[in-house]
C-alpha cells in the first residue's frame, strides 16, 4: 500500500491522537473537505456539533451545528456511501449561525461539521454516532 | 428457548436525560397531558406490575419529537387526512364531513374505545373496518386498502381527537369471545423462534433484544410514525412484522386474528392516554 | 415527481425589533436517496429536495444545500433576526424542477 503523507502522519500520531483529531483516511471525505476549505488548515475551536451517542434509528438522526461567526457550515456523514449531508450558508439576517436537522446514517460512523468563518479560517467538530441493527424492529 | 437478558444502561439514560419527561407523562404542545403510566386492570390478572406507554422506552431525542406537533412528522399525515375528510367521493356524493361535520368535534373520544362491538353488524370492528364501512355503505366509495397511506392517515386524524384521553376498550359482553381469542394469541408461541408476544413484551420489557429496547408492546400510540420507514405504521402492520420476526407465516392486516389481537392488546393499555400518532424508531 | 409535497413553517406572529426568533420548517417529501432498489433489483433514481432558502423582506437568512442524507420529510430549525415587520419567504427546490414556497408575515412591536 502506498503511503500518502497524510497516512504517514496518521500512523505517527497513533490511535489516541487520531481519535482526538477526527481525520479519516476516506478519500471522498478528504476531497469534500478540501473542496470546502481550499486546503487551508482546520482548527477545532468555535464549532459545536450535537449528535446522539446512539441513534435509535439510523434513518432519522437529529443533529445540531453551531458556529458563531460562521459564513457556512458543511455537514458530513463520513461513513455513508456518499458523505455529503448538507451545507448551511448563513445570510446577513441569520439570528445565529446554527441549525438543526434530521439526517440518515447508514452505519456507526463519525459525523463531521466544518465551519467556514467570516475571517476565512476553518473549524471542525466530529462526533461518533452509533447506529445499531435492531433485534426485532421488523 | 431461553431469551438472552441484557440490562441496558440506555433505559436509564433515556429516562434521566429527557428533561421534558414528567413523572408519569408528558405534554404535547404544552397543553395536551399524556399519561404514560397506569394501574394494571384486574382482567390482566397481574400480568404486568403497571402499564407503561412505549414513549417511556424511547431515547430522549425520539421522545422529544412528540412534545410538539410541529416536530412530529406523523402530523403531516393528519393534515393530509384533514383534506381527505372534506373530499366528496363515491356514488352518494358525500364526504366524511357531510355526515360527521368537523372531525375535531365529532370524533372526540372515538379512537379511545376502538376496537369495539358493532351491534348492527354483529362483529368487533377496528377503526379501519369502520372507516371502510362508512366509505362503502354510506359514501358509495371504494374501500381503502386496510393498511394503505390513506387509511393510516385517517386513523391518525381520528386518533388525534382522542389524544390525552384514556384508552378504554370493552373486554366483556359481546366482545368477550374475541377478547379471549386475542388473549390466547398473545400467549401463543409462534414461528421457528417459538416466541409469543408475552415472551418479549410481558417477561422482558425494558430489556434489550440485540439493540432494540423492548417496550410493553402497547398500541396507545398507533398509528405510529416509525423513524425506520419514515411513515405511519398501523397496529396490524406491526403485528404482522412481529409475527414474521418469529419466523412464522404471518397474518394479514385486517384478518380476524389481528382484529382479535388488537382488541386484546388495546385492553392491555386501558388507562394509558391515546398518544397517536406517536413517534417510534 | 413527488406527490403531496406540503411545506409547513412555524414562525412567531410577532417579535421585538432586532430580536432573534426561532423558525422551524418541515416539508413532506420522500427524499428518495438513489440508494434503494425496487422489487426487481433496479436502483430507484434519486429524487430529493436539493435546496432550501429562507429570506426576510428580500434578504437571505439561510440557504441550505441538501444531499440525499437528509431524512425523509426534511426538517430544519434555525434562527432569524427580525429588524422590522415583514414577510418570510421559504423556498424548497426539488430535483424534478418543482419549486415549493410558503410565506409567513411577522409584526414587529
CATH topology of chain A: Immunoglobulin-like
Going by helix content, strand content and strand pairing, the class of chain B is: alpha+beta
CATH superfamily of chain A: SoxY domain
Tally of extended strands of chain B? Answer: 11
Point out poorly predicted stretches of chain A.
15-25
Spatial gap, N to C terminus of chain A: 42 Å
- Span of the ends, CA to CA of chain B: 27 Å
Number of E-type strands of chain A: 9
Explain this structure:
- The complex is a heterotrimer of chains A (138), B (281) and C (109).
- Chain A is of the alpha+beta class and 138 residues long.
- Chain A has one domain (24-131): Immunoglobulin-like.
- Chain A has two helices and nine strands, in the order ααβββββββββ.
- Chain A has helices at residues 5-20, 27-37, and strands at residues 42-43, 48-50, 54-55, 61-66, 70-77, 84-90, 94-103, 109-117, 122-131.
- In chain A, the strands form two sheets. In chain A, strands 1, 3, 5, 6, 8 and 9 form a six-stranded mixed sheet that branches.
- The termini of chain A are far apart.
- In chain B, helix 3 (74-85) packs across helix 7 (149-160) and helix 8 crosses helix 11.
- Chain C has 109 residues and is mainly beta.
- Chain C has strands at 7-10, 14-15, 19-27, 49-56, 59-66, 75-82, 86-94, 99-108.
- In chain C, strand 7 (86-94) and strand 8 form a beta hairpin.
- The chains are: A alpha+beta (138), B alpha+beta (281), C mainly beta (109).
- Chain A binds chain C through residues 59-61, 77, 80-82, 84-96, 98-105, and chain C through 20-22, 33, 35, 55-56, 59-72, 74-81, 83.
